[in-house]
Amino acid sequence: MAKPSKEIMEFMSAHKIDSDEIWEVHGNSWCIKHKALERAGAVAGITWDRPQLIEVNSGSGVVALCAFGKLGDREEWSIGEAAPKNNKNAYPYAMAEKRAKDRVILKLLNTHGYLYSEAEFEADEKPATLAKKDAKAMYTKLQDEMAAASVSRPILKEWLAGNADRIKILPDDWQDTLRLQAEEALADLRQQEVA
To answer: Which residues pair with 116 in a beta bridge?
Structure first.
């Protein structure tokens, strides 16, 4: 796996994007999570006008809209579209909005062309796993977080659900180890509840 470009690293630093919120796709393109883009846009102060619907056909699952965003004195717009050819989920309106807004955020934050939103890719594309040398710090952080969340079964289950995407980019054997540790912690917590 290649390292992100200088421009991507600067973007990540400027907008506090964690390394587990981006991944490499198709060999030389980089993808960023939608929620990370929304967070970066909100912190930067991007404001939105009402989107303009361009095409709407609920029956066939086709939606196209134009989103308009502002950052200071700069304005950008972009079209988001969802149709059966490029969208497999049951929410074409939400997908069209997500794509349009993510594209505007990338333009306003000067990283359009360096990063692509996860909304651009099919949901079933698996992010590449990190090499162990690149994943060690994240793996250690995840272990520490999981230990801190192991105070009750509901809290640990919530932590696991909220961090599934981070765990998925770890090397496969480290994913298995974390899952086994979580299962053991859940079993221990269950025993404590019964006792």
So the answer is: 31
Q: What tens digit of pLDDT does each residue of 179-192 get?
A: 888 888 888 888 88
- Residue linked to tokens 């996860």: 118
Query: DSSP assignment of 66-77, as one string?
Result: EEEEEETTEEEE
Helices (H) and strands (E) in the chain, counts: 7, 7
CB-CB contact of 93 with 55 (8 Å): no
13-38 in b/e burial notation, b at 16+ Cβ within 10 A? Answer: eebebebbbbbbbeeeebbbbbebbb
Q: What CA–CA distance (Å, rounded) separates 168 from 153?
A: 21
Which residue(s) pair with 31 in the sheet? 23, 116
Instruction: Convert the pLDDT of each residue in 81-110 to its tens digit.
Output: 999 988 888 889 999 999 999 999 999 999
Residue 16, token pair as written in the block: 């506090």
Q: Is-contact 20 165, C-beta < 8 A?
A: yes
Q: Whose CA is closest to 106, among 13, 25, 8? A: 8
